[in-house]
């Protein structure tokens, strides 16, 4: 049997299997009822934002702006601050989110991959890639990339000239730490059948730390989440098991019970964020932050108004967005206080008749977020400041059959 | 639309606009629902979850109806909603808890013509695939989308689509060696 036979078999089985599936036909009322529930939830979130952002974001905006104007100039390797004026939030307390008519800011301070060009665009300049890797990050004197191979995810170790040195079976992501000295990834151990390990390895030449590894459930595919302190990492399996890997005299794993899934960890203060409950009727869930040093089951704070995505490098803030996602991702962008969950700033789509979504967002530094925003059939990377300023940092790309660009060192899904 | 739903303040013009909009949506829904349900069934593996997935996906499409200006993009958009919703880590976690607490009574009563002791080994195989890989298989071999279209919907690279599909076919080939019935099912129907 060859590939064509197998494809044909699969196609016929799928068609045969599904042809009689009739179910109960949905009427417009069914759909509208669920849509209203989703909409009520969205409106409730917007109401919360209006009340809290007005109270919190504006003073924050003033302090950030003042600090920028009066403080020392930023280091040379930091993005040049925008000179655009601080905008005023709308009546709902949020700032407009759009990729159109934006001032152009400095080049992004994080690397990204241009798909069609097979190019890694770093703050130091573009680098040609052998292929448009799902992820790629500096590793020792070369690079560590994640690719889709014949047998699943592959870790691809490349030298400085982007020549492949070796590959191993990998996990669903690689995550560097905030200062780029360590990287968290997963790989299969071919010496022991089914053994999967999570590895915390030094990624900077000369960084004095031995690689540490933890055993994941046998045969599992691991999604590394991140570093939760100097000696702790967080990871999950595709079967939904959640763990902390602790490096002490006897490195061990600790199951996390407080979440349905984990989405972020803070290297600065050890906090871990994730979803604590899910309402399938509304297609959204409630999220929380826990401090594993205090409890692995009870959260420090919860919210049903935001999904939580990534802690700032200093651990003070966490990127968030509306908890309902549709095809492209959350329909807005927010930054919350990581200690309390209070909103600091929120951006909502300004184009009411066009699909707008944030497909990914990362911290550029501890006060600035870079977001890949989809608007209609175009996408662009924008820089969002805590005072509500928004500026474009890349050109606008048409969304065709392929994703045009993505952040290089963050998991894409 | 948000104001219409929430405040009940509906002017005559609003009513006309809403009526037209709903009629358009209903027409689209009527035309596409059977197809969406079939795809949802292949993605989820049971009718209860498939109906639920289609309802949520259509509800989200309904809320975005006015924003999708290019009507030729509707199918891709709702397919993307459906696949992402089904792949959602959170939805999976919720489903897992729901199943473990036995709160899916309807699922136990669902039958189809293949469930009378004649479950196909191939269908069993498809159901063992991880969700994202199953989505690749369904979109590629059932929906007959190109690798690039599948990559776009799933938010992954074309290379990953290729490798996921190739891996599934390789696993299937391996199963054929241990379950020759799987191959014969297909041979006999030719």
TrEMBL record, chain A:
Keyword tags: Membrane, Transmembrane, Transmembrane helix
Entry's transmembrane regions: 44-64
Domain of life: Bacteria
Stored SUPFAM superfamilies: DPP6 N-terminal domain-like
Keyword Membrane among UniProt keywords: yes
Region Disordered, residue ranges: 66-94
Protein name: WD40 repeat protein
Origin species: Nocardioides jiangsuensis
Phylogenetic lineage: Bacteria, Bacillati, Actinomycetota, Actinomycetes, Propionibacteriales
């Amino acid at each position: 049997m060859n590939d064509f036979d197998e494809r044909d078999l699969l196609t016929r089985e799928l068609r045969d299997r599904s042809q009689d599936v009739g179910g109960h036909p949905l009427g417009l009322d069914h759909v509208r009822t669920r849509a209203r529930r989703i909409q009520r939830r969205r409106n409730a979130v917007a109401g919360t934002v209006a009340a809290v952002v007005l109270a919190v974001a504006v003073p924050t905006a003033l302090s950030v702006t003042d600090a920028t104007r009066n403080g020392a100039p930023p280091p040379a390797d930091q993005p040049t601050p925008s000179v655009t004026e601080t905008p005023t939030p709308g009546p709902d307390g949020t700032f407009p989110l759009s990729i159109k008519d934006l001032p152009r800011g400095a080049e992004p301070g994080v690397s990204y991959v241009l798909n069609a060009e097979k190019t890694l665009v770093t703050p130091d300049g573009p680098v040609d890639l052998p292929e448009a890797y799902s992820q790629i990050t500096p590793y020792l004197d070369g690079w560590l990339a994640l690719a889709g191979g014949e047998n699943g995810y592959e870790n691809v170790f490349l030298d400085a000239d982007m020549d492949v040195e070796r590959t191993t079976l990998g996990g669903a992501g690689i995550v560097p730490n905030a200062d780029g000295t360590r990287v968290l990834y997963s790989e299969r151990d071919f010496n022991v059948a089914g053994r999967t390990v999570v590895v915390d390895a030094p990624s900077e030449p000369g960084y004095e730390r031995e690689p540490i590894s933890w055993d994941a459930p046998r045969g599992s595919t691991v999604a590394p989440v991140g570093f939760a302190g100097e000696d702790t990492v967080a990871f999950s399996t595709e079967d939904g098991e959640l763990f902390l890997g602790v490096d002490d005299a006897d490195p061990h794993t600790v199951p996390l019970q407080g979440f349905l899934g984990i989405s972020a960890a803070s290297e600065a203060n050890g906090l871990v964020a994730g979803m604590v409950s899910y309402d399938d009727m509304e297609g959204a869930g409630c999220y929380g932050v826990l401090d594993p040093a205090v409890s692995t089951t009870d959260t420090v704070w919860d919210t049903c108004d935001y999904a939580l995505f990534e802690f700032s490098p200093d651990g003070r803030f966490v990127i968030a967005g509306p908890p309902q996602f549709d095809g492209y991702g959350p329909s807005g962008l927010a930054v919350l206080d990581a200690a309390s969950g209070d909103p600091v700033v929120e951006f909502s789509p300004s184009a009411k008749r066009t699909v707008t979504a944030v497909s990914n967002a990362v911290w550029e530094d501890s006060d600035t977020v870079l977001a890949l925003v989809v608007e209609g059939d175009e996408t662009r990377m924008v820089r969002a400041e805590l005072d509500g300023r928004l500026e474009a940092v890349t050109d606008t790309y048409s969304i065709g059959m392929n994703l045009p660009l993505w952040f290089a060192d963050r998991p894409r899904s | 639309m948000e104001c219409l739903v929430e405040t009940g303040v509906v002017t005559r013009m609003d009513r006309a606009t809403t009526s037209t909009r709903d009629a358009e949506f209903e027409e689209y829904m009527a035309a596409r629902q059977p197809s969406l349900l079939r795809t949802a069934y292949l993605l989820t593996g049971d009718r209860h979850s498939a109906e639920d997935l289609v309802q949520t996906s259509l509800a989200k499409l309904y809320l975005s109806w006015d924003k999708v200006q290019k009507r030729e993009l509707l199918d891709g958009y709702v397919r993307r909603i459906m696949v992402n919703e089904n792949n959602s880590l959170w939805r999976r976690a919720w489903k897992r808890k729901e199943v473990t607490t036995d709160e899916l009574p309807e699922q136990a009563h669902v039958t189809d013509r293949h469930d009378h002791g004649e479950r196909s080994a191939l269908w069993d195989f498809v159901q063992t695939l991880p969700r994202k890989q199953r989505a690749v298989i369904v979109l590629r071999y059932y929906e007959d989308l190109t690798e690039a279209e599948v990559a776009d919907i799933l938010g992954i690279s074309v290379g990953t689509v290729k490798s996921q599909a190739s891996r599934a076919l390789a696993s299937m080939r391996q199963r054929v060696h241990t379950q020759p019935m799987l191959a014969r099912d297909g041979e006999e129907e030719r």
